Amino acid sequence: MTAPYACQPADSRGRLYDEDLSSFRSPWQRDRDRIIHSSAFRRLKHKTQVFVEQEGDAYRGDYFRTRLTHTIEVAQVARTVAGALGLNTDLAEAVALAHDLGHPPFGHTGEDALAALMQPFGGFDHNAQALRIVTRLERHYAGFDGLNLTWETLEGIAKHNGPVAPPYPYALEQVNAAWDLELSTHASAEAQVAAVADDIAYNHHDLHDGLRAGLFTEDDLAQLPIIGPAFAQVDHRHPGLDPDRRRHEALRRVFGVMVEDVIAVANDRLARLNPASVDDIRAAQGAVISFSPPLHQGLREIKTFLFKRMYRAPSVVVERRLVTAMLNELFPLFLARPEALPGHWQTDAAAAPMQERARIVLDYVAGMTDRYAMAEWERLCNSAAPTG
Ligand SMILES: Nc1nc2c(ncn2[C@H]2C[C@H](O)[C@@H](COP(=O)(O)OP(=O)(O)OP(=O)(O)O)O2)c(=O)[nH]1
What we know:
dNTPase_2
């Protein structure tokens, strides 16, 4: 039994292309399954979350998060928080599983490089790209392009960062023209949960991966809010714990603090708002799901630390330069030589005027995994006689 403000499967606004309902899966369970079976989802396995591998450290590199394991952790948090708030867990899970489908190779570094390259051609960002993938680029179904997801799942992907004001990014403009996603309102509480679950997941796992990669130590974290007290509590309760267990115990406390904070804030806001339906959540003044101001401030300090010591650590900056240079060569090459593209990409790009061709090349390059992008760069840009 879900809360009155939860999304109800029977009230789903359905799919753009009408389909018979399943007799044994709800619309959002079906969305979840379609997302998991998409090619973009499988490719998350080989897309970077944060560059933490040191050179020659391929074995230890297997240990760190990829976009796929990050996504699975986001989905887990989303289900837990949605369940605790009486929301529809399947919808929260579907939005969580789709939220990073648009990430290009090499994580945020790849995104920065491709956004600069696409600047004259309408731009690029991973959230808009996720929408483009699930509405156009997956081409496996007989009756439509994309996954034909429900309105509620598309809404959740489109409003990952809250209500959207015009001018809309490229993919949002197209999708919204075909089907009004009511971009000026908040998303459902389920989608808001998926968005906050993203922050909870990466704040937790980036600390974990950063420590394991040796980018910083437990001592470096001692002065930080939330995490410093978590280590102190573990030391008090379990003196002399071995380093691995000590770290795990402290980080699971940090995880718990974030999850409990979001649930407490939501319960408080929901009690005051008393929404009778999901539309009351959409029309509310602010988001119902977010961190409390003190926790938000604490997480900002942690993020500042992580930026300095992890996302822009010297070893990471070296890696950023290398992969940016690769994309800076690959993208213009495909733009100038569409015959280097495979299959339908080649025919589509060759026939298209420049603006459209750039979007096709972008779709192709952004869909690459890290290792495929490196192999393509090696094949086309790093040999004396590139083969088309
Ligand atoms: N924001 C940002 N995150 C980075 C950067 N380099 C690595 N990361 C990592 C930190 C987190 O694990 C993850 C955050 O990216 P996400 O796409 O999940 O969230 P973000 O809030 O940046 O965007 P989103 O909420 O998806 O619109 O990427 C960077 O240059 N900027």
